[in-house]
Design brief:
The structure is a single chain. The protein has 13 helices and four strands. α2 packs antiparallel against α6, α6 packs across α7 and α6 crosses α9. The chain is mostly helical and 283 residues long. 59% of the residues lie in helices and 5% in strands. It starts with a helix and ends in a 12-residue tail after the last strand.
């Protein structure tokens, strides 16, 4: 899992132009526009033209592979609240990870959902269109946000202060309810969203809840002694700092800032782009 997360980081570093800036803002705006149009179109033809439909996609309407994430599934006040919350979470993740990694995160969720949608379609004998939406993709963003910021406090119902990790637990309970209550194979959709989350944040989650975290807390690292040892080794190679994720050094990139992570087992250096978004070393 951690190796896969490092491969994602390296892909984003090797392809700095990959990604759609402000992706979550575009998705939220698209949902809001279609929500307004849907209220004016009582026949539902506009939303139906953009909704996911394996039968129509196989007939050439390939735009449905993308536009289904823009189709709103609710309305009213709580729809606006959810859109604002999704924008807040998505934009925060994009600032933390960069546009490339967040775009890859959301795109991977879409691809996995589409594949699952076609599997369901063929499993049911091509008789029904799969009601595939972006609900589970968007709700799975809670898990990523809570993994990065578990103690961040939000106001539930605009009144009750609650930490994100508790909201994520409530979200997980809802996912579990959907898996148990929905008939097979529709109950695979929330599981697919969980798989996407684990691809990008599974290493952090296991570090946080696993026995490795307990071993890490019980072990004391002499950072001053380790720092002098690492700096001596790196100076002998012609540089002082080297990022453990992307491999950039202060000799090749003097404009970058480098920091050491106190949560990693051992003494590991990271550049300013990865100090807050790397997979913590546990051994």
């Amino acid at each position: 899992m951690k190796k896969l997360m490092r491969q994602v980081d390296r892909f984003c570093w090797n392809h700095p132009r990959f990604g759609i800036p402000n992706l979550m803002l575009l998705i939220v705006i698209g949902n809001a526009i279609l929500w307004v149009l849907g209220m004016m179109d009582h026949s539902g033809s506009i939303l139906g033209f953009l909704a996911f439909s394996p039968r129509l996609i196989l007939r050439g309407q390939i735009w449905r592979l993308v536009t289904f994430v823009l189709v709103p599934t609710g309305g009213g006040f709580w729809f606006l609240v959810s859109m604002y919350f999704y924008y807040f979470i998505g934009s925060t993740l994009e600032r933390e990870w960069g546009a490339g990694k967040f775009t890859l995160h959301y795109l991977c969720g879409m691809v996995l959902s589409v594949v699952c949608g076609f599997v369901i379609y063929f499993a049911l004998g091509k008789q029904y269109d799969v009601p595939l939406t972006a609900d589970f993709i968007n709700m799975a963003l809670f898990f990523s946000f809570a993994t990065l910021y578990p103690d961040n406090i939000v106001l539930l119902f605009f009144i009750i202060p609650i930490k994100m990790k508790w909201l994520a637990i409530l979200d997980a309970v809802y996912f579990l309810y959907c898996v148990v209550s929905n008939p097979f194979p529709y109950n695979l959709l929330p599981l697919i969203a969980i798989v996407n989350y684990l691809i990008f944040c599974g290493g952090w989650l296991f570090d946080y809840i696993g026995p490795a975290r307990a071993r890490q807390r019980s072990r004391t690292v002499n950072f001053q002694r380790a720092a002098r040892k690492v700096e001596r080794e790196q100076q002998a190679r012609g540089y002082r700092y080297k990022c453990a994720v992307c491999g950039r050094t202060d000799a090749d990139h003097p404009e970058l800032e480098f920091r050491y992570c106190s949560r990693c087992q051992g003494y590991h250096c990271f550049c300013q782009d990865h100090i807050n978004s790397h997979v913590h070393f546990t051994e």
